[in-house]
Write a structure and sequence with these properties.
This protein has 130 residues and is of the alpha+beta class. The protein is built from 2 helices and 7 strands, in the order H-E-E-E-E-E-E-E-H. The strands form 2 sheets. The protein has a 4-stranded antiparallel beta sheet with strand order 3-2-5-6, with no helix packed on it.
Length: 130
């Protein structure tokens, strides 16, 4: 009889602890932190061409001396985009999880992987082969 009561109390304790941990984790993900973003520019473009865009908030900021500072939630992601000063140019990097010090790399060179994809597409859709 007492062991059933003990297991019920233990079960309720474990459920309560789990809920507490989940709430704590959610609170940590929503915590606002100061993110210092460094630009590593491997492109033949000026640094002022790039800016940072955060998601899901949509906040943007420009680099000053290859550095940008944003206040974002821990669960946010940032990526490089083209500055709004250059509307005719398109560039976008993959989103990166934020941390206190985040580095974003601008790489404008074609990778071997992209070259292989384009070669494959060209072979597959070549007019002369049909």
């Amino acid at each position: 009889m007492y062991y059933k009561l003990f297991f019920i109390i233990l079960f309720l304790f474990i459920i309560s602890l789990s809920i507490f941990k989940l709430l704590k984790l959610e609170q940590k993900k929503n915590e606002i932190i100061k993110v210092q973003i460094s630009l590593i520019n491997n492109c033949e473009l000026y640094d002022k061409v790039f800016m940072v865009k955060a998601s899901p908030s949509g906040k943007t900021t420009k680099f000053i001396d290859k550095r940008a500072i944003m206040y974002l939630k821990r669960a946010s992601k940032v990526k490089l985009v083209v500055s709004d000063e250059f509307p005719g140019f398109h560039f976008s990097s993959l989103p990166v999880d934020v941390s206190y010090n985040t580095k974003l790399v601008a790489d404008c060179s074609n990778s071997d992987r992209l070259d292989n994809i384009f070669d494959s597409l060209q072979k597959q859709f070549n007019k002369n082969s049909n």
